[in-house]
Amino acid sequence: MKKDKEILTQRIQNGIAKPFSTELIKLIKPAIRIISQEDQLTQKSLSKFGGIPLMKKEEEWLRAKKGNNPYVFLLQLDLEEIKPYNIGQQLPEKGILSFWFNLDTWDDGKVIYYPNAEALIKADLPPELKEEEERKKLPIWKRIFTKKSEFRLFPECQLKFEIEYHAPSWDSLQIKLFHIRNNTKPIDLEIDEKYIDEYCCENRSDHHLFGYYVGLQESIYELMKITKGRFPTKLSEELIKKGLNWSLLMQIDSDKTTEMNWVDWGKILFFIQEEDLKKEDFDNIIAQLDTT
To answer: Within a 13 Å sphere around the CA of 213, how many CA atoms are in the beta-carbon half?
Structure first.
């Protein structure tokens, strides 16, 4: 754990001139890397990608307010399993955290927190998913001539967790704030090309809790609620500070193991405000699909 942070710090010191390198090192923070595995779930493990989620007995499958279509279930995390990796106690110590997304709109997701995992049961599938699951049992020649639902269950995948360390990417709010305060631009900085290759290619996992994200587009998704879904054409220090109240909760990438492909190999990002996280309140979330 300490070694990973030291390696990233050394790369920044060797590849970037001061004062920018000093600022980046200050911004390094831990993340929980999530690795999808094809192995079947153990009886003790509740953390998983895909499959059928756990919900309260009286709950129904989540649906979008507009159109009433079912959300897709992405993954659930048993917080007791994550506890050894939860540096700084950012998450509750126990319970289930469940992630959902609306693929119709690309900007509508839900995070549900269940404090008591023992009170949960397997969810009942909505009619759209039941029909699709039944259709899969048909011979292939019949499936060709039957309607395929756009809703689906992703295959159930076991999870493995690791600690890693991140620094913010070149187009992040943290770096834009640095440029405003120092009256600099990215082109003004002396940066070693090898560092950029290592930083961009090696310093990110496919899926992770916390840490930073690298946008596929030059879009700053923390500002989506503040600017009512419109990316700002001009950034002020005041606007950036408002955006920095939001931090990455979860990044879910496209992944062959999970069979998740978010529009040209994109990623789904969930953001939360620090005060809400402290209160264990996951109702006020920004969720956004980022793709090329």
So the answer is: 30
Q: Are 107 and 230 in contact (CB under 8 A)?
A: no
Give strand pairing partners of 36: 159
Q: Which residues of the chain have pLDDT under 50?
A: 1, 197, 200-203
**pTM for this model (two decimals):** 0.89
Look up the CATH superfamily of 2-290: YwqG-like (2.30.320.10)
The CA angle 30-185-198, to the nearest 5 degrees, is 40
Give me the residue spans of the domains in the chain. 2-290
H/E segment holding residue 243: helix 237-243
What is the pLDDT, as a whole number, of residue 143?
Answer: 58
Question: Residue 190's pLDDT is what?
Answer: 57
Asked whether the beta carbons of 116 and 123 are under 8 A apart, the reply is no
Which among 238, 233, 204 is positioned nearest to 219, based on CA atoms? 233
pLDDT value of position 185: 77
